[in-house]
Recover the amino acids of this structure.
């Protein structure tokens, strides 16, 4: 599974960093999302799916092809 | 033709939303209603629709937009005087919100956690020293969030009571426009002084960092910093306070759930999400006005029409939360909409989560036999405010 983020739309609510801390971090200056792994590490798929579902600004996109 | 429902509806049971919500959700998830002055509004009750519309930037959160829905003249007047990103649309909203986001990241909140735990330990020590029965609202519910907010703003601790009193008056539905305006003026006057002090002598707090990073470069005016401080007090204080007191009551009312938490305090994380869902203490703030024609559930919402995205109804949608009227602290409820959704979703949510998790884990570990000191029927609820809650919570152990 691959994941993309549109950090420009991010409102820094922090939900992704809360539910999938190994995949998402937050910028120290403005709290916006930092993607740590474009290819989701094995075992973290459910967390990343949840992060995408609860992201309030629709910033996280999943891509299953090629995964 | 039958009369339209008029907001706010009365609750049949204080721990549940009005029954009309569930009926509308099943039969008419996009419905018409009216507010205090007879204005017509839309009520959205289905989870999917509430989430979609809150995430849709064709709806505006600006109270001066024609058609923006209000619940009372007083609270409406207070909203009109707010000049913060809570009441802005993009691009302005994101521009201002991003000046504060770094203060509320998951990591920033983790750094605060030991201080907050100390505060909680101290407050519970005081409760145990004083002995039962006592009112949990001042002892813990109001005390902790005001200690936290004054710490964040770098205000003197002895100012708690004033801040609390003025912040509550601003959001009371029974207050007249004059009363809410006076309360807003008092709070702003207070923050005015505090910000001026910090401008002369910055410290280690949010206001000082706003001054140094944005005030001194001209990106934020003195007045804008004052209004941001006011927003943090009004958005963060009474909300967290109410979740502590009402959340405790919900657990006391469900002894099986209380026992589960006492037996396994690590359930506090899930318990907090479930309590946020179950209680949804900010029932009406997620309201907007359409700026374009929007189709939803076979209806057309037209520009200038007001919409209440009813999160208390969405959070009881059986398609997303099986047996929604049952409090179950072991369920996965993290997709609830109690913090709203879309670009305005709560900025302080990670802080609120941390405070609440620590409160419930500590309270029920240290006082496992906590119980109500009066019959449930004697508990007085505050249903006349932007934030739902209890006026007092007499407890014993
Ligand atoms: C359990 C406690 C809390 C609840 C239930 C809660 C709920 C909410 C809700 C529903 C909104 C969205 C309003 C809308 O869409 O118009 C919101 C926004 C906001 N909250 Fe909270 N909140 C809580 C705690 C806090 C705390 C502790 C802070 C900060 C100290 C805070 C700061 C804010 C701010 C600044 C906004 C405006 C965000 C924006 O417009 O971008 N909240 N909150």
């Amino acid at each position: 599974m691959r994941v993309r983020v549109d950090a420009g739309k991010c409102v820094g609510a922090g939900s992704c960093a809360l539910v999938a801390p190994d995949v998402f971090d937050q910028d120290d200056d403005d709290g916006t999302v930092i993607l740590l792994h474009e290819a989701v590490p094995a075992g973290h798929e459910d967390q990343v799916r949840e992060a995408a579902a609860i992201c309030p600004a629709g910033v996280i996109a999943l891509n299953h092809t090629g995964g | 033709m039958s009369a339209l429902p008029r907001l706010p509806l009365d609750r049949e049971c204080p721990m549940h939303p009005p029954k009309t919500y569930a009926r509308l959700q099943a039969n008419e998830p996009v419905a018409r209603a009216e507010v205090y002055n007879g204005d017509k509004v839309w009520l959205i009750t289905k989870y999917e629709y509430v989430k979609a519309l809150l995430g849709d930037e064709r709806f505006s959160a600006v109270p001066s937009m024609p058609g923006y829905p209000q619940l009372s003249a007083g609270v409406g007047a207070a909203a009109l005087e707010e000049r913060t990103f809570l009441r802005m649309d993009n691009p302005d909203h994101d521009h201002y919100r991003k000046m504060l986001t770094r203060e509320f990241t998951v990591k920033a909140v983790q750094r605060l956690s030991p201080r907050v735990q100390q505060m909680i330990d101290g407050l519970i020590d005081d409760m145990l020293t004083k002995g039962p029965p006592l009112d949990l609202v001042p002892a813990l519910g109001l005390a902790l969030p005001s200690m936290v907010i004054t710490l964040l703003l770098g205000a003197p601790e002895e100012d708690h009571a004033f801040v609390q009193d003025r912040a509550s008056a601003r959001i009371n539905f029974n207050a007249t426009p004059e009363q809410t305006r006076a309360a807003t003026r008092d709070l702003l006057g207070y923050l005015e002084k505090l910000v001026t002090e910090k401008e002369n002598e910055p410290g280690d707090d949010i206001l000082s960092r706003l001054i140094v990073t944005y005030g001194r470069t001209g990106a934020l005016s003195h007045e804008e910093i004052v209004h941001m401080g006011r927003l943090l007090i009004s958005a963060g204080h009474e909300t967290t306070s109410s979740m502590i007191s009402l959340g405790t009551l919900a657990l006391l009312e469900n002894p099986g759930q209380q026992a589960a938490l006492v037996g396994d305090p690590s359930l506090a994380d899930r318990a907090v999400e479930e309590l946020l869902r179950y209680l949804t203490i900010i029932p009406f703030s997620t309201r907007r006005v359409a700026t374009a024609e929007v189709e939803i559930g076979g209806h057309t919402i037209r520009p200038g029409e007001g919409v209440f995205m009813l999160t208390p109804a969405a959070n009881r949608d059986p398609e997303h939360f099986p047996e929604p009227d049952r409090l179950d602290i072991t369920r996965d409820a993290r997709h609830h909409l109690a913090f709203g959704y879309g670009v305005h979703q709560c900025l302080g949510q990670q802080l609120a989560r941390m405070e609440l998790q620590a409160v419930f884990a500590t309270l029920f570990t240290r006082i496992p036999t906590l119980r109500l000191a009066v019959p449930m029927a004697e508990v007085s609820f505050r249903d006349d405010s932007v934030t739902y809650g209890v006026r007092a919570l007499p407890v014993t152990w």
In short: The CA atoms of residues 74 and 178 of chain B lie 8 Å apart. Chain B has one domain: 19-396. The radius of gyration of chain B is 21 Å.
